[in-house]
Design a protein that fits this description.
eight-stranded parallel barrel, 14 helices, alpha/beta, two-stranded antiparallel ribbon
């Protein structure tokens, strides 16, 4: 599959997730078989007004050696600010620019950004057009099925994105009002695929290699992106690739899960420093050990520790009990 001038390898992509898909997460997913990834979302307005000088923005823009193809996701509602940010960030080291029209959190939609823009298709077109003209990088768009069950307009929005310059469109097959609840309606992805000629990427309820194959078969989409199912489970990309290519796949052992958590911990502290890295890792550790015997009690105990060495020792001890 190609996105503009980018050739993507076989496999699934890592979907953008706020507070999750930093450089550490992207690297581990790439090493585990992700074909591409998208960063946490960056506010175009915030970038312009801060000059990119705050620490959080610098961390968000960090790339680690060994990362594969990755897009930088921008959000906002002002076409001129989105275009300016894309142009200024063109040399940040990402391979494409992804525009967020799908994030459902009230703190974003309340400002008319993210998935709130699904109610303003013409403005989406203006944003995509402005950004596409401002940067030499390929531009992609992430959309939702619609705002709510009375406004399922993903095919219309996809056509507008394509005609405005988007070179691929990712569809989360839930409405904004669903947020992450209920079932994703894959038929929406199928309708979007029939509506445009650029690559369409399906998103929603892909939790296994079999799910990825079924989504492609049912919708005709060109590729699949995985979000929450990759939390604590970067191996899902190897699993999906095995289903797509016939390669062998074995699920991780408890020891392998803890070893990955320890490596993730090291990367997070390298990226954010020990104090913030420890705070960031609490959620990741909970995801890595989920389903293992004693995971709930262990998670609670980890959240009380404030020393990185103590957390690593606890992880190693937990792994020995889980084996």
């Amino acid at each position: 599959m190609r996105i503009g001038n980018i050739n993507l390898p076989a496999g699934a992509g890592l979907a953008p997730m706020a507070g999750v898909t930093d450089a550490a997460m992207r690297l581990l997913c790439h090493e585990s078989g992700a074909a591409w990834a998208v960063s946490e979302m960056l506010s175009a307005k915030g970038w312009i007004y801060s000059g990119g000088k705050n620490q959080a923005t610098r961390e968000l823009l960090t790339r680690l050696p060994g990362e594969g193809i990755a897009g930088l996701q921008l959000f906002g509602r002002e076409p001129e600010l989105m275009a300016r940010a894309a142009q200024e960030l063109e040399s940040a080291g990402f391979e494409f620019i992804d525009l967020n029209f799908g994030y459902p959190a009230p703190k974003i939609t309340g400002n008319g950004e993210g998935s709130a823009l699904m109610r303003e298709p013409e403005r989406i077109g203006e944003i995509v057009s402005a950004v596409s003209k401002a940067t030499r990088l390929p531009v992609t768009a992430k959309i939702r099925a619609g705002w709510d069950e009375t406004c399922i307009n993903a095919p219309e929005v996809a056509r507008i994105c394509e005609s405005s310059g988007a070179q691929a469109i990712a569809v989360h097959a839930r409405t904004r009002m669903q947020q992450y609840s209920g079932r994703a309606d894959w038929s929406i992805i199928k309708k979007v695929k029939k509506s445009v000629s650029v690559p369409v990427l399906g998103n929603g309820d892909v939790r296994s290699g079999a799910d990825a194959v079924n989504m492609i078969a049912q919708t005709g989409c060109d590729g699949v992106i995985v979000g929450r199912a990759a939390q604590g489970n970067p191996w899902i990309f190897a699993e999906i690739r095995s289903f797509l290519t016939g390669e062998a796949y074995a699920p991780p052992t408890p020891r392998e899960r803890v070893d990955m958590a320890l490596r993730h911990f090291d990367l997070e502290t390298r990226l954010h420093g020990e104090k913030k890295g420890l705070l960031e890792m609490r959620k990741h550790i909970a995801w890595y050990v989920s389903g293992l015997p004693g995971a709930a009690k262990f998670r609670d105990s980890i959240n009380l520790l404030t020393d990185a060495a103590a957390v690593k020792d606890a992880l190693c001890a937990f792994a020995q009990k889980a084996e």
